[in-house]
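Late entry, guanosine-5'-diphosphate complex.
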Amino acid sequence: GKPVVAVIGRPNVGKSTLFNVIAGDSISIVKDTPGVTRDRIYADCNWLDMNFTLIDTGGIEPESTDIILSQMRQQAQIAIDNADVIIFMTDVRQGLVDADLKVADMLRRSGKTVVLAVNKVDSIQKFGNDVYEFYNMGIGDPMPISAASRLGIGDLLDAVCSHF
Ligand code: GDP
Ligand code: MG
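Prediction complete; structure with ligand written out below:
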């Protein structure tokens, strides 16, 4: 079948914004059992001559750090189990935080293909240098993007599709 690409990361890093930019109108929602996992949103996407299924994880906004951590582990596990390529998204404005490192550990141990996107780089002049710290996670080269301003999306999709 078509390759599956999942977007994972902490709440508020911009996963759904990226998903909507890539997916446009072709969105379908699959509800999970309440309280077990979150709703996942799927879309059939094209980039150049490539077709793939994109999954937006997340949807519930957790209140406590404990819940954020456990939900991120769950997301990462769902992505590891179901996706061929994982877009791991971080936020340049919040910088590298402990929760990012925990997910990076899981992803590294899984051996899955990961593309690391550093979002909210709305200006390379302003935020470009802050991207470098994400190399410290040891899961590959961080790719600066701005989902809101649609910057770096083509390069990101090239990187994702190079793994199909
Ligand atoms: P999610 O929780 O990871 O799905 O994040 P959302 O896509 O819901 O975005 C969270 C917030 O970040 C929203 O207020 C978005 O408008 C904002 N956001 C998303 N992408 C960008 C970006 O590239 N730059 C900036 N400055 N804000 C962004
Ligand atoms: Mg979201």
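The chain has a mean pLDDT of 88. Will revisit in the morning.
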